[in-house]
Design a protein that fits this description.
The structure is a homodimer of 137-residue chains. With 137 residues, chain A is mainly beta. Chain A has a domain at 24-111: Ubiquitin-like (UB roll), CATH 3.10.20. Helix content of chain A is 10%, strand content 31%. The interface between A and B is large, with 44 and 44 residues.
């Protein structure tokens, strides 16, 4: 119920929400960059493959935690991006962990289809230094 | 041998090298942020654990590729940082891969000791959303 006399808050666009919905105890632990973002490393839950790196603002993290659907902040489109919303290549979130600095998240997911927009299972396909040949004996 | 008449180049600090030593073909594929950095995701080679996120400039990547010792750019100290140089918790690089956008690297390593400065094996210890209980049947 609205408090009598309270200002009537306008519903803003998702890119500039009045409230992100993120738990204040979590929000207080984040160390965001100048654009308000933290790094999100996305890893397959079943085989440990690192799939991609994306970015989250408070709203993206709040939505990810609340829905279990990996949601990022698109720096190119400047909008929330529910992974797979158009491609169908969704990421069901199994766990989310914050690093010791508070500026990076590890998102472990069940990936549907390829993670990369190129159609590759992972975005990390351009090998600069291959695994060296192992010598035994 | 120095070419006669060539200007005698002063040896600059590692933070502002005259040449980074990075292969120009690799340098051309990098998409750096405003600070000249790309994201480096570090993963254990043997068990797939994601250990940490760090940052690399061209010189850090060049040194990593040339020496096989993971070397980052310390944003707090503004200098090259050979991982484990003081702690002994070094990272022997097994492979380096660039992502489809050219702005993130996946560094797979053999980790000596804990990766995190807190003494934890990984920096991602602060679980925000635990793995949900699985139901079968």
């Amino acid at each position: 119920m609205r408090r009598p006399g309270a200002a009537c808050a306008r519903i803003g666009p998702v890119s500039a929400p009045l409230s992100t919905g993120l738990d204040p105890l979590i929000a207080a632990r984040l160390k965001r960059d100048a654009a308000g973002l933290v790094t999100a490393v996305v890893q397959r839950h079943d085989n440990g493959e690192v799939l991609m790196v994306a970015w989250m603002n408070d709203a993206a993290l709040a939505r990810t935690l609340a829905t279990g659907e990996a949601t990022y902040w698109s720096r190119s489109r400047q909008e929330l991006w529910v992974k797979g919303e158009t491609s169908g290549h969704r990421q069901a979130v199994r766990s989310v962990a914050l690093d010791c600095d508070g500026d990076a998240l590890l998102i472990r997911v069940d990936q549907t289809g390829p993670a990369c927009h190129t159609g590759s299972p992972t975005c990390f396909t351009d090998v600069l230094r291959p695994k060296p040949v192992e010598r035994t004996g």
